[in-house]
Amino acid sequence: MRVVIKVGTSSLVSADGSCVRLSVLANVCETAMRLRAAGHQTIIVTSGAVGMGCMRMGCPRPTDLGDLQAMAAVGGMALSRLYEQAFELTGGRCAQVLLTYSTFGSKEQFRTAKRAFDSLLRHGVTPIVNENDVVSCEELQIGDNDTLAAMVATMVDAELVFLLTDVDALYTADPGSDPSARRITRVHHGCLPELRRRFAAGEAFDPREVPSLASYIALEGGHEAAVASAGAGSAAAVAEAKPAASAGAGAGAGAGAGAGAGAATPAVRKTSRHRKDHSGGAAKAAGAAPVRSGQWGTGGMGTKLAAAQIATSCGADTIIMRAEDAHNIAELVADIVASGTGEGVGTMFAASEEPARKGHTRWLTTQTPLGRVVLDAGAAAAVAEHRSTLFPAGVKGVEGKFNVNDAVDLVDPLGETVARALVNYSSVEIARIAGHSTVELDSLLGADARAKSICTRENIAVMRRLS
Predict the structure, then answer these.
(1) How confident is the prediction for the chain on average, in pLDDT?
(2) Which residues are CB-neighbours of 202 under 8 A, at least 6 positions away?
(3) In the chain, which residues have pLDDT < 70?
(4) What would you report as the CA-atom Rg of the chain, rounded to the nearest whole angstrom?
(5) Residues 394 and 330 placed together within one structural domain of the fold
(6) For residue range 116-130, what is the model confidence (pLDDT) as tens digits?
(7) What keywords would UniProt list here (predicted)?
(8) Structural domain contains residue 355
(9) pLDDT tens for residues 36-53?
(10) Do 456 and 323 fall into the same domain?
(11) Residue 85 sits in which domain range?
(12) CA-angle at 353, arms to 44 and 113, nearest 5°
């Protein structure tokens, strides 16, 4: 099994930027070696270059792009040296791999990078991956390493992604201030778009009143118990853990959650190719609410949800957990392989049950959409369920500006993404032919009527089923 482990800046560099948290880095490297001994292959996606550079130079995190690139160059060398030393102490070998936006934008570069990963892993070398901030311009950056980890997982056909951070899980509310908060133990791939939307909007909601979420989320202590404990007059809000007023407040919130993970809903119990069942497993108490990352991190729970959607859509289970718990990863992987349960640490986002994508469609999922094509309900269902070729008659509108062969998101009437595709027409042309039949294309576009479809099925990667 291939496993991607992402460790964030806030986990590697102290909040005040004065020192490196060597215990976390060493734990991650030791975990990679333990996984290798068990027959697995590991890729580490690391943040921390800018933070390390600022620490070496004795300055706060800059805002100027050139200064950020300079700090990344200084810190990148120091960070690589620490990883190399840690692997030497554990008897392993590692290699630095720096990727850019264009690595994923070009199909040829994508394939070339994949070959390099395959070769390194075949030789028993652990790739240490980061974005090449020194040459990445602001307009063409991947931006955060949660997304980078998901894109790397897509590239190397990984089956598990661990996003290590200073947040121990996704919660129904802030456990530092709401004693009814419960850790979300498992989330089905199908509800991630709705979960992301509600999290971004900061909306409060009762899981019982949101069918699109209630049927696909498992809570610590069982779904019914968690809902009942919230009280008739309160609503649960999806939130990441925030700093508690005191250590006791966070611990109390976690301790009240109960010791066992309740039975997951039928949707969560469905299995993927390497899991037998997702319904069981003892869940640990949430513990004290962690401290936020402060000035050093570029991600947040929003980027982790976005990364989880990318990774799970390509068949990789994704787990958000505290970096301090990295020593548990080898046991978690063993449990998942053996029984499909794990130990219930953090929040697991279950992979899509679609067959794992290969080649062109897998590459498509890593492309940054330059616009959106809005479909009617019938066309959205045909694309989502059958990966059908999209014709102009099924299009209601277009958003953004893009050209021929650009990547776009195909969205349903509610604005939810159902697929990513390469288009045969520009945004201007699609706006002109939207809702029309193919026999009208010549009269509408004249010599520019180069194809009968907006996009063909081989250029469509389904991101979400509607049923």
Answers:
(1) 78
(2) 237
(3) 137-143, 203-209, 212, 221-299, 340-344, 354-358, 466-467
(4) 23
(5) no
(6) 999 999 999 999 999
(7) Amino-acid biosynthesis, ATP-binding, Cytoplasm, Kinase, Nucleotide-binding, Proline biosynthesis, Transferase
(8) no
(9) 999 999 999 998 888 889
(10) no
(11) 2-211+298-349
(12) 35
